[in-house]
Amino acid sequence: MTAVDRAREAFAAAFGGPLEGVWAAPGRVNVIGEHTDYNDGFVLPVALPQTTRAAVARRDDGLVALVSAQHPGDRVEVPVAELAPGRPGGWAGYPAGVVDALRDRVPGGVSVLVDGDVPAGMGLSSSAALSCSVALALRDLAAPDLAVADLVDVARRAENDFVGAPTGILDQSASLLCTAGHALFLDTRDRSTEQVPLDLRAAGLELLVVDTGTTHDHATGGYGDRRRECEQAAERLGVRALRDVPDVAALAPLDDGTPEGGVLLRRARHIVTENARVLEVVRILRGTADPGAIGPMLTAGHASLRDDFQISTVELDTAVATALEAGAAGARMVGGGFGGSAVVLVDADRTDDVARAITDRFAQQGFTPPRAFAVVPSAGARRLA
Ligand code: GLA
User: Fold this and answer.
1) Which of 126, 132, 171, 270 to mutate to test ligand 1, by most ligand atoms within 8 A of the CB atom?
2) Ligand 1 centroid from CA 300, angstroms
3) Residue 214 has pLDDT above 90, yes or no
């Protein structure tokens, strides 16, 4: 049975009435450019083959009705007029936040069945896949004047204002704007984009995602702390955002001898060097047939996230170190940090060795068994039916 048939069937079982269409939006893995998005910087994600599908129909009774194949029995029904941040919460907050952001367009309400295979809590943006699939559906059905790029902010508002996670626009942009066979080079300040060809298979390479089995939650804790520290550093330096710091030397004023100044220096140094790494990776990819040449940049990005931004975990560090020992071209943790996945760039004929080495090392260390799978740069959000 195809994904569309499954969504159709589940929609019929949940809502009975006629369906208006089925949409899909992917998760993402970021090649490089971590935590730069809320600093007006650069990112370079690819879309995953895994997607969330949304089967949608408008209603006329003013209700938002939400059902998820991943949360059976958890049917949510709320009047559009009563949507408010945190109500509903949990998984339903993402689609509900999108409906809230477009509530003038769907006053009669909407029925949404979601079904997806983007692993949740792995740092692969299952939440953006969920919100972007619904955003594209509502655009096509009820807001044709909006461009797909406008939906980035619709989905971001759902996540920031409704769910309460203070993220940037990396995940939503990747899910909506990526194209197959390319990485999306995005300037998060002016929103300009470039589709950078990334044909890993032709180069005999694979991008291996390694789930460490440890989860994260960006609505609480460390993610928001990092964001605040970056804003403080920018303020002390007198710049609009850390994007505007030209080089590491310009960070010297942060180093005022206090522990706090030392922390801000580290955070800012990650952002400045990470932006430079994105530009360097894009330069390499534009100019070479060998994407393996970007490997050392990925590994340097990991060191910076571990030592300066301090958001890695012992599991992520172990996965990265083991991958490199087993012959990977480069490896780094991905996403918001404090758990989730690492990504490994590796010669296709070494993928199995690398995956096995990581599995063995995790077993020796007594960690949760990791899960590894190869991904190819895939298409962004689209209508399936
Ligand atoms: C999470 C956020 C993104 C971005 C990354 C880190 O995925 O949702 O906006 O900040 O972390 O690069």
Assistant:
1) 171
2) 18
3) no
What angle in degrees, to the nearest 10, is found between the helix axes of 259-287 and 222-237?
Answer: 90
Instruction: Tell me how far apart the alpha carbons of residues 17 and 89 are, in angstroms, rounded to a whole number.
Output: 26
Amino acid at site 133? S
CA distances from 231 to 38, 125, 153, 224 (A): 9, 24, 21, 11
Q: Is the peptide bond before 296 cis (omega within 30 degrees of 0)?
A: no
Polymer length of the chain: 385
Residue 35 beta carbon below 6 angstroms from any ligand 1 atom: yes
Reported as a single tens digit per residue, the pLDDT across 281-301 is 999 999 987 899 999 999 999
H or E stretch covering 109: strand 109-116
- The pTM of the full predicted model, rounded to 2 decimals, is 0.97
The atom of ligand 1 lying closest to the CA of 30 is 12
Average pLDDT over residues 171-175: 98
Mean of pLDDT values over 307-313: 97
Ligand 1 atom having least distance to the Cα of 125 = 7
Nearest CA to ligand 1 atom 2: 167
Q: What φ, ψ does residue 93 adopt, rounded to 5°?
A: -60, -30
pLDDT of 205: 97
Tokens of 209: 């995602």
